[in-house]
Design goal:
Length: 481
Amino acid sequence: MVIEIQKWIEDNKEQFIQISNEVWQYAELGLFETKSSTLHAKILEEAGFQVTKGVAGLPTAIIGTYGNEDPVIGILGEYDALPGLSQQIKPVKEPVVEGAPGQGCGHNLYGAACLAACIVIKNKIELGELKGTIRYYGCPAEENADGKGWMVKANLFDDVDISLTWHPWDMNYVLATNFQAIYNVVFQFKGRTAHAAADPFNGRSALDAVELMNVGCNYLREHIISDGRIHYVITQGGEAPNIVPDKAEVWYFVRAPLLEQVEEIYSRVIKVAEGAAMMTETEVKTVFLGGAANMLPNTTLEDLLQEKMEDIGPPVFSDEDRLFAHELKKSFPEKYFENLISTIPQDGKPHFERFKNKDFCDEILPIFGRGVTQGGSTDVGDVSWVTPLAQFATACAAIGTPGHSWQLVSQAGMHIGHTGMLQAAKVLALATAELMQNPEVVKKAQQEFENQIKITPYSCPLSDDLVPPIEYYRRIYNKHV
Ligand SMILES: [Zn+2]
């Protein structure tokens, strides 16, 4: 079975490389991945899955199910791109279309690997060699709107026994790190317009309020926990200097290792916003766009993924890949890799220093990051609170490739990315097969999950009255879409 699964993925790899490349070319922003999600749905339908589109109020979220027995194994895929990162498959910066989106987090690979794993498992169920249900979750908008959180809120994981996922990275390891919980909120200020020179005394500037709010939050940083993060962009700031702006808007992310810490910082950010409104005699309205929980780890599943990664071994890159990586690395910020690894506590990092001068990670590292919180957030966190879940990473990029970069876009569209993607598909499939063959592992993972949830129940960052912020993003992205 182990060999057959790997062979099937190798024999059918061109199909999944093609899917990955198509999604790379579409490079659609979160909530608007129409072509990408349609392609994923079509592949699943053709393979005999029962497919539901537009779930959880998200037009580009899909679910494909095959089988009707236990256990139900969910595999989470993604396909959204990032704004402004368009890039050709070249080791020097050259966009396909200047300012257009690009697959800066490799989600084209992410989704295609999950499809491959689901389809090979479906084949085995169909042949009667495995017993269970395989379900593909096509999760939109990981980058901007926390698609999986909305899918959790819609109770779409209620019957799932175990969830597995992965992410393209520059290393091969089980990703046991915590990721930061996050709130994603827009503050809209409303003032009164006036001629900025003739009668400014009649105006009340909404832009002043935004600026004062930002100043307030920049002072607030000193007095929050050191792992907290507050960042913003001004999304509306007026039309012309000679008009006092009556509308202005600023978009904030608030992050911390635990959701309750985010809530605490956020309540203080709200006070700063209200203070800014009071100072400027404007009004403020908050628009809660989304949020994601931190990760709940599952060591049983982490151990299972580690075993499968070691069975399969690291991706093997070609001489051409090495030449490309070598050229590309010239564009990486100086000391980027050293600075990044220096932020990881020593006991959590498997001696990354030794990779400093290598082009690729050529081994399976030990399980990475138990007890470590990584910068950045993921909506995979929410799924980890409603079903036992673990994830891993495979090398789909040269060592030290910055996240969310044009350098990652270029590698996600070529042999380097495809190589890591196929390894990931094999790991996902072998782990799923093991779970279907070995109910003891499923039970153990579930018991571990139950024990943790008993102590700290899940608190969904998306309140009942919220709906996915599709119209808001349509406005923001009008310049890109
Ligand atoms: Zn990502």
